[in-house]
């Protein structure tokens, strides 16, 4: 049974002096990172290590070069994220999905705040959901700590079963990865089980990445709006809505782009 993620805020506050800056014009108050600024968080992040157990991690075991490109949607108070990875090897096939991170008021947290007589605003929790795949349950999304310029630590579960170490560069070095693994270990994560994510693909500029995302079929894959050509299949293909989204995307990519 996984431990519940109880983040020691005193530990988090010591890792980055940037979190002591004055509050930004718009904050996502549901994040553990103090005064979380989604506009600064936006941009490209490389996953350099992760722990992915349970449903949310299924289908990602063979991922190389996992990346997330975040855009701040001020009008909807949300972060849109395009996440993708290359399966099996640097020359494997790409799958991706588009999600949305939003923070909502949490009534259970309100009760806790009231019981403890904690002063402050409305308590919130943040979630990642996939709007075009309503059968996929929303998952918690919590930026534990970030300096916006070099690293971010992201929890994706209610317990300690899913966490990512993000870097603004694909290969920040052994010292960088080990530092944040150790820090997560202090927060209760199994740091020995946090595995490096290979970032061994040919380096791609943001311009090249944008061109790839604009390639035929990519928008349909990211938004789950496939309009496949006649395939001439000789037998039915089963898609199980209770398997992971990445497993389903693997099947779709093999069918539509092979």
Automatic annotation (TrEMBL):
Top-level taxon: Eukaryota
Chain spans, region Disordered: 1-25
Biased segments, Polar residues type: 1-17
PROSITE patterns: LIPOCALIN (PS00213)
Lipocalin/cytosolic fatty-acid binding domain: residues covered: 37-199
UniProt-recorded Gene Ontology molecular function terms: small molecule binding
PANTHER family per UniProt: CHLOROPLASTIC LIPOCALIN, LIPOCALIN
UniProt record similarity statement: Belongs to the calycin superfamily. Lipocalin family.
Protein name: Lipocalin/cytosolic fatty-acid binding domain-containing protein
């Amino acid at each position: 049974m996984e431990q519940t993620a109880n983040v020691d805020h005193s530990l988090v506050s010591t890792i980055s002096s940037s979190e002591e800056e004055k509050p930004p014009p718009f904050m996502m108050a549901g994040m553990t990172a103090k005064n979380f600024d989604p506009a600064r968080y936006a941009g490209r992040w490389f996953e350099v290590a992760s722990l992915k157990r349970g449903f949310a991690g299924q289908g990602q075991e063979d991922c190389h070069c996992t990346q997330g490109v975040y855009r701040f949607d001020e009008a909807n108070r949300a972060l849109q994220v395009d996440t993708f990875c290359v399966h099996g090897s640097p020359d494997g096939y790409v799958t991706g999905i588009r999600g949305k991170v939003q923070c909502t008021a949490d009534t259970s947290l309100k009760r806790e705040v009231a019981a403890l007589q904690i002063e402050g605003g409305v308590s919130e929790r943040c979630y990642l959901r996939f709007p075009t795949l309503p059968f996929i349950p929303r998952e918690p999304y919590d930026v534990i700590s970030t300096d916006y310029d070099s690293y971010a630590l992201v929890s994706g579960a209610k317990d300690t079963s899913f966490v990512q170490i993000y870097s603004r560069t694909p290969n920040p070095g052994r010292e960088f990865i080990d530092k944040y693994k150790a820090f997560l270990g202090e927060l209760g994560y199994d740091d020995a089980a946090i595995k490096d994510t290979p970032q061994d693909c040919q380096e791609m500029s943001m311009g090249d990445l944008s061109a790839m995302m604009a390639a035929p079929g990519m928008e349909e894959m990211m938004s789950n709006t496939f309009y496949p050509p006649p395939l001439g299949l000789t037998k039915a293909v089963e898609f199980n809505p209770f398997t992971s989204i990445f497993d389903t995307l693997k099947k779709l990519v093999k069918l539509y782009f092979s």
